[in-house]
């Protein structure tokens, strides 16, 4: 049994603190159910708030990494990120690497990070100049036959930890572009390939919901009745492909990396 102590640096609920410290949400829940977590020396039975300065003591059988390495050299590390961990103040600390783009906590898939400041500058420049293309697979509610780039305006609501989509430019809004291509479609649901140009917080999730086809399993932007209907606990959104042009990093130049989500063979479309 492994024992690990974590000092609380920001007031959050226990499961959030654990997620910020490399534990998957599932692993953290299991420890809480098994009463393998102590807060300031007292056994925790519920997901209570841990205040700054507190100490969480965790007991578990083995270290479970919330990622797997797809490619690595002296400049970069490319991983398959699992659900339940943030990129900033999470994976960056775990991998000792610099984030240059991000995936939401519960979004899985390919993520590239820089191991040096020089590589960080190269990757940031490449993303800014659209020399790296990001593609996602997602299953959404309803029949959605399309092959089009949708433009809209996104406003971030920091207090509510969500974003809102509008058809026209307004104060505080930023332009977003989401390219959507249908791979399969039936009345109940559709499998889509999504490419984002740039990429803002919750862009794909919010934009698809705005278009009337929320991602299956998305409890934030989806409808309750759909969430209950499909009975998915995790959102079906996966960053499955990264395409690199010549960006000055050996091992990435001109390369394409592809992995597929485990749920792909079990999509709701028959």
Describe this structure in words.
- This protein has 270 residues and is of the alpha+beta class.
- The strands form three sheets. Strands 7, 8, 9, 10, 11, 12, 13, 14, 15, 16 and 17 form an eleven-stranded mixed sheet that branches.
- It contains six helices and 17 strands.
- The mean pLDDT is 92.
- A hairpin with a 4-residue loop joins strand 12 (147-157) and strand 13.
- Among the domains are: 2-60, Structural Genomics Hypothetical 15.5 Kd Protein In mrcA-pckA Intergenic Region, Chain A; 136-238, Pseudouridine synthase.
Summarize the biggest pleated sheet.
11 strands, mixed
CA-CA gap between termini: 44 Å
Number of E-type strands: 17
CATH topology of the domain at 136-238: Pseudouridine synthase
Please estimate the helix content.
10-25%
CA gyration radius, whole angstroms = 20 Å
Give the full name of the CATH homologous superfamily of the domain at 136-238.
Answer: Pseudouridine synthase
At the first level of CATH, the class of the domain at 136-238 is Alpha Beta
| CATH architecture term of the domain at 136-238 | 2-Layer Sandwich
Mean pLDDT: 92
Low-confidence stretches: none
Strand content: 35-45%
Keywords:
single chain; alpha+beta; Structural Genomics Hypothetical 15.5 Kd Protein In mrcA-pckA Intergenic Region, Chain A; eleven-stranded mixed β-sheet; globular
Question: Can you summarize this structure?
Answer:
With 270 residues, the protein is α+β, with helices and mostly antiparallel strands. 19% of the residues lie in helices and 37% in strands.
Topology:
Elements: E1 2-7, E2 12-13, H1 14-19, H2 25-33, E3 37-39, E4 42-43, E5 49-50, E6 55-60, E7 67-72, E8 76-81, H3 87-95, E9 98-99, E10 108-114, H4 117-128, E11 132-141, E12 147-157, E13 162-166, E14 174-185, E15 189-197, H5 203-210, H6 224-230, E16 237-244, E17 256-258
């Amino acid at each position: 049994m492994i024992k690990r102590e974590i000092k609380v640096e920001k007031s959050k609920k226990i499961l959030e603190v654990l997620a910020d410290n490399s534990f998957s949400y599932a692993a953290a829940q299991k420890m809480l159910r098994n009463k393998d977590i102590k807060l300031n020396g007292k056994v925790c039975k519920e997901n209570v708030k841990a205040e700054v300065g507190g100490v969480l003591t965790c007991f578990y059988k083995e270290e479970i990494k919330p990622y797997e390495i797809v490619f690595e050299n002296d400049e970069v590390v490319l991983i398959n990120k699992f659900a339940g961990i943030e990129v900033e103040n999470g994976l960056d600390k775990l991998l000792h690497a610099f984030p240059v783009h991000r995936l939401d906590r519960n979004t899985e898939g390919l993520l590239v990070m820089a191991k040096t400041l020089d590589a960080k500058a190269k990757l940031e420049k490449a993303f800014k100049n659209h020399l790296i293309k990001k593609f996602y697979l997602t299953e959404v509610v309803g029949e959605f036959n399309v092959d089009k780039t949708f433009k809209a305006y996104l406003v971030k609501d920091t207090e509510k930890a969500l974003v809102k989509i509008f058809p026209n430019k307004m104060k505080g809004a930023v332009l977003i572009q989401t390219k959507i291509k249908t791979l399969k479609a039936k009345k109940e649901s559709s499998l889509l390939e999504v490419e984002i140009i740039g990429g803002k917080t919750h862009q794909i999730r919010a934009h698809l919901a705005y278009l009337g086809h929320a991602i299956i399993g998305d409890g934030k932007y989806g409808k309750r009745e759909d969430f209950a209907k499909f009975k998915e606990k995790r959102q079906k959104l996966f960053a499955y492909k990264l395409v690199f042009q010549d960006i000055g990093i050996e091992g990435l130049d001109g390369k394409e990396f592809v992995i597929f989500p485990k749920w792909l063979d079990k999509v709701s479309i028959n």
